[in-house]
Design brief:
It is globular, with a radius of gyration of 22 Å. By secondary structure, it is α/β, with parallel strands linked by helices. It has helices spanning 39-42, 47-57, 73-76, 99-105, 124-140, 155-167, 182-190, 202-212, 227-232, 234-242, 259-273, 293-298, 326-335, 345-356, 364-378, 400-407, 429-447; strands at 5-9, 33-37, 95-97, 109-114, 147-151, 171-176, 194-198, 218-220, 250-254, 282-288, 339-343, 387-392. The chain has a domain at 95-120 and 229-407: Rossmann fold (3-Layer(aba) Sandwich). Helix 10 (234-242) crosses helix 11 (259-273), helix 11 packs across helix 13 (326-335) and helix 14 (345-356) crosses helix 15. The strands form three sheets. It has a six-stranded mixed β-sheet, with helices on both faces. The protein has a four-stranded parallel β-sheet with strand order 7-6-5-8, sandwiched between helices. Strands 1-2 form a two-stranded antiparallel ribbon.
Length: 448
């Protein structure tokens, strides 16, 4: 069966545009585009047949279907040539049963989708494999693209640089100076990208990259380019597949530029429309209090949206005051009976530390989502018997300096209750044994 997909205006303006065309906004109204699939063609394959196909491809070695994204190729970019796909076997990340942490929150069925267990350490790999593969196909078709560029707060730049390097395509990243972690900065440097450190914030970088990419020989890789969404939507399919095709009650995720919530919604809706699932989960977007324009709009039932000037937050990847995908995000939340919650700097730092004490190693953005979960449980919006999935967007190792600062008491304005300082003692077996005994007893008391 031949499947097809194309760009179309999110407002419904007439016109279809090829995914191989260099276009980011509707030429009629200027709003964003989204990828549409030929649903009628997809429906010619029964729901059970889609389930079997995706299960049969799970982690197989036949390129590119071992990828969690390209295992769903027919739902992503069905017509791309396999030899032009640029994949690092992304996706298929583990669903961590947060049993011990869940008990502390009185949530019986809590899971954390570890999207940071990926090639560059974040969920951005899922979208970047699609975008760079399409660019690779365009270049193979003779399109004169010189480079691919993005604005980033860290993770997008890492993913673009890595996939561009794998494909042999030059990449340019616009970073806000002194606003990304050293681990995030070194990734595009190591992969050979041109790293432009700009004296502005993410929103300023985003404005600059949009201006530069008006020249079609530089291709835009930010999430306003909805090719990224096609890869990120496979998170939803993976979650349901990992639950033997059952749908969780809630999915909670951090939100900055707000592409990911619309991506998750799209994945669930495709499964629903094709008869693979019979219900939709509720969604929660969690924002840092210092960068919370969606939360402020939610308080007014989305009647009005006003960008904000984002203030510094530990959750640097979502320090965004003017998200480009806000219309898509609001539509997704309304369709999924969703909510928006926020977390202060202290709340997100404490929640990261609490969760880490139960075996996780979370990024600060996951901490925002976990803090939102705690608030929703306390307000009885989420009930203890419901199945909840929290999306962990990046690997905690990218924020090791921040974690150390927390535990030694050097995070400004944060009075950590979960600090765990190194204990400096003499190399005396008796002193060491006494220290261990006190640690075991203290741990036992805390557990009880």
């Amino acid at each position: 069966m031949s499947y097809n997909a194309w760009f179309q205006c999110i407002k419904g303006c007439p016109g279809q545009y090829s995914l191989l065309e260099i276009i980011y906004r509707c030429p009629k109204c200027g709003d964003l585009l989204e990828v549409h699939h030929d649903t009628d063609a997809l429906k010619t394959r029964a729901a059970a047949a889609w389930v079997k196909l995706f299960d049969d491809r799970l982690r197989q070695n036949s390129y590119p279907y071992g990828s969690g994204v390209w295992a769903k190729k027919e739902w992503v970019v069905p017509f791309i040539d396999n030899e032009n796909i640029v994949s690092t076997c992304e996706g298929n990340t583990n669903l961590f049963w947060a049993n011990r942490y869940g008990k502390q929150l009185h949530v019986e069925d809590l899971w954390v989708k570890q999207c940071g267990n990926s090639h560059t350490g974040s969920f951005k790999d899922l979208g970047m494999t699609v975008l760079v593969s399409v660019v690779n196909q365009m270049i193979a078709n003779g399109e004169p693209i010189d480079a691919v560029a993005c604005a980033s707060t860290g993770d997008t730049s890492a993913a673009l640089a890595a996939y561009g390097a794998a494909a042999g395509i030059p990449t340019v990243v616009f970073l806000p100076r002194d606003k990304v972690s050293p681990a995030q900065l070194v990734q595009p440097l190591a992969n050979g990208a041109l790293v432009l450190s700009l004296d502005t914030d993410f929103d300023g970088c985003m404005a600059a990259v949009q201006e530069v990419t008006k020249h079609k020989h530089i291709y835009l890789a930010n999430s306003m380019n909805s090719l990224r969404i096609e890869g990120q939507k496979t998170i939803s399919v993976e979650i349901v597949q990992q639950f033997d095709w059952e749908v969780p009650d809630w999915v909670i995720l951090p939100g900055g530029n707000l592409g990911n919530v619309s991506a998750l919604a799209k994945g669930f809706l495709m499964m629903y429309d094709l008869g693979m699932i019979s219900k939709l989960p509720r969604l929660c977007v969690a924002q840092a209090e210092n960068a919370n324009p969606l939360y402020l709009s939610y308080l007014k039932n989305f009647a009005h949206f006003e960008p904000v000037t984002a203030r510094k937050t530990l959750a640097s990847a979502i320090q965004i005051g003017n998200p480009v995908s806000v219309r898509k995000a609001i539509a997704a939340l309304q369709r999924f009976n969703g909510v928006v919650e926020q977390a202060s700097e202290s709340e997100l730092a404490e929640e990261v530390a609490r969760a880490d004490r139960t075996g996780m190693f979370n990024c600060p953005h996951t901490g925002v989502a976990l803090a939102a979960l705690r608030k929703l449980v306390e307000r009885k919006v989420i009930h203890g018997h419901e199945r909840v999935v929290v999306i962990s967007t990046a690997n905690g190792l990218k924020f090791a300096d921040q974690k150390i600062a927390y535990h030694v008491g050097r995070l400004p304005g944060i009075q950590g209750t979960q600090q765990n300082r190194p204990v400096e003692i003499a190399a005396d077996p008796r002193v060491i044994s006494e220290t261990i005994s006190r640690y075991v007893e203290r741990t036992r008391l805390l557990e009880n």
